[in-house]
Design goal:
Helix content: 25-40%
Radius of gyration: 20 Å
CATH topology of the largest domain: Quinone Oxidoreductase, Chain A, domain 1
Shape: globular
Largest sheet: 7 strands, mixed
Number of strands: 15
Number of domains: 2
Order of helices and strands: EEEHEEHEHEHHEHEHEHEHEHEHEHHE
Structural class: alpha/beta
Bound molecules: nicotinamide-adenine-dinucleotide, zinc ion
Number of helices: 13
CATH class of the largest domain: Alpha Beta
CATH superfamily of the largest domain: Medium-chain alcohol dehydrogenases, catalytic domain
């Protein structure tokens, strides 16, 4: 079988890999049908993720068909179509019992990180009963790929942690797939305003189509001043950081209203200043979170009821043999206008 293998910083190849085998009775082997590439895969390729070592098959998203199950797997059988969650959960450890699957002591974000991932013909999924979801009959499988990671991430880390509420004013800094997923799911709660901030005009146009009430291009001018002007100097109730750099987290600190919540989603590789000299008396909350994927069953229901259309995030299609081209397209999103790319097997 073939997989997209990380070979060290800046190096990757689509190459022949050993077929995964059942290693524990709770494992399943899934034959992949569709996968995608995440911004986090690009972080790995830059050498930012120390836990991911050379030789690793990348990918933590996708849908497929059960090929084989271990003796202890009871929820799935060969032939079942499944959604792969980016987070593996045993369902039994102290963190899983608290619904904090991201910190499962024998799981968490391991796929395409510390174990081989989904950008391959076959993948081994540990704790299969609690880490896979059955695909509802008639579901749009490509759209479902958006439920492996980006929709639960935007919703849990951004919307839920950010306490988006009816009538509230929300700003989302970063209109990449994650910021756009936060934009789509923030609308579950009918906020009065959703202001999107990015440097990329195309992504801001997409955001306006997806329901943003205003868009600010922060390339030309101080975005903070524009937000304060738009909100009669009050600021926003929720500021969602969906980029992962110091400038954008600092922007969130400048625009947060008294009593507001800054919900960080971005993966930060370098230090960020916390301006308590300005914020100490503002009754604000700051949250951080690694996606737990606890909202996946709810998102599946909302999607089944056609109240959410994740397919609108898909811009490009590739075959398994074009996986290297898919990476090129995704890595140059400003030129290619890529949001999410689908790779079909
Ligand atoms: N917390 C989690 O569990 C979790 C899960 C998945 C991804 N992430 C992280 O979420 C972040 C967003 O992911 P993504 O896939 O959407 O990334 P992305 O790189 O596709 O999108 C980031 C967006 O930020 C914009 N941007 C860059 N600099 C900016 C600036 N100075 N001001 C305004 N906008 C700016 C870019 O134009 C881009 O549209 C990443 O850091 C990713 O690693 C976190
Ligand atoms: Zn991801
Ligand atoms: Zn666990």
């Amino acid at each position: 079988m073939k997989g997209l293998v990380y070979l060290g910083p800046g190096r990757k190849a689509l190459q022949e890999c050993p077929m995964p085998k059942i290693a524990a009775p709770t494992d399943a082997i899934v034959k992949m049908s569709k996968t995608t590439i995440c911004g986090t895969d690009l972080h790995i390729l830059k050498g930012d993720v120390a836990s991911c070592t050379p030789g690793r098959v990348l990918g933590h998203e996708g849908v497929g068909v059960i090929e084989e199950v271990g003796a202890a797997v009871s929820a799935f059988k060969p032939g079942d179509r499944v959604l792969v969650s980016c987070v593996t959960a045993c369902g039994r450890c102290a963190y899983c019992r608290r619904q904090m699957f991201s910190h499962c002591t024998t799981g968490g974000w391991i796929l395409g990180n510390s174990i081989d991932g989904t950008q391959a013909d076959f993948v081994r999924i540990p704790h299969a009963d609690t880490s896979l979801y059955p695909i509802p009959n008639g579901a749009d499988e490509e759209a479902l790929v958006m439920l492996s990671d980006i929709l639960p991430t935007g919703f849990e880390c951004g919307v839920l942690n950010g306490r988006v509420a009816p009538g509230s004013v929300v700003a989302i800094v970063g209109a990449g797939p994650i910021g756009l997923a936060a934009l789509l799911t923030a609308q579950f709660y009918s906020p009065a305003e959703i202001i999107m901030i990015d440097l990329d005009e195309n992504r801001l146009n997409v955001a306006m189509r997806f329901g943003a009430t205003a868009a600010i291009n922060s390339t030309d001018g101080p975005a903070a001043a524009t937000v304060m002007k738009m909100t009669a100097n009050r600021g926003v109730d929720t500021a969602i950081e969906a980029v992962g750099i110091a400038t954008t987290f600092e922007l969130c600190q400048k625009i947060i209203a008294p009593g507001g919540t800054i919900a960080n989603i971005g993966v930060h590789g370098t230090k960020v200043d916390l301006h308590l000299e300005n914020l100490w008396d503002r009754n604000i909350t700051i949250t951080t979170r690694l996606v737990d994927t606890v909202s996946t069953p709810m998102l599946l229901n909302v999607m089944r009821a056609a109240r959410l259309n994740p397919a609108q995030l898909i811009t490009h299609h590739f075959t398994r043999d074009q996986m290297m081209d898919a990476y090129e397209t995704f890595a140059h999103a400003a030129d290619t206008k890529a949001l999410k790319v689908i790779i079909s097997f």
